[in-house]
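Re: beginner question about structure tokens

> Can someone show what the tokenized structure looks like for a real chain? I only ever see the sequence side.

Sure, here's an example I had lying around. Input first:
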Amino acid sequence: MIERTLAIALACSLLVSAAAPLASAQTTKQDAKRAARWRELLSSYGTGKDSVVAVRLRDKSELKGYLSEKDDESFVVTNAETGASARVLYAQVEKVEITSDVLKGALRRGTRPKTLAKNIAIGVGVLVVFGLILGLAGVDD
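And the corresponding structure tokens:
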């Protein structure tokens, strides 16, 4: 009876130890995909005081400042007020928010004319419908 229990316990421990490297390999692949995604996103933005970002890390901490340096594995966020800088690995990033200054530059470079025209047409259409509704509501009085 004891031998059978020991054999089952040994088999279970072997299965667990064999599965651990697979789980860590999957985590490593996910980290690599995450890093590649953020590296690609931030590669189109420059560095300097105009490149203002807010970064949330996977440990839920947040950094706000400008991108002062970038390389293949990490980037540096420098706080404009205090001058303190922090190096961040791309794999540590959960979310990046880019402020309007950088976003405006990206829109100038990357917006397709058809998309811009479609968005303007939708906005004008909504205003026209809203105006008609207000006009018809005023006629009933």
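Each token stands for a local structural state, so reading them left to right follows the chain. The chain has a mean pLDDT of 76.
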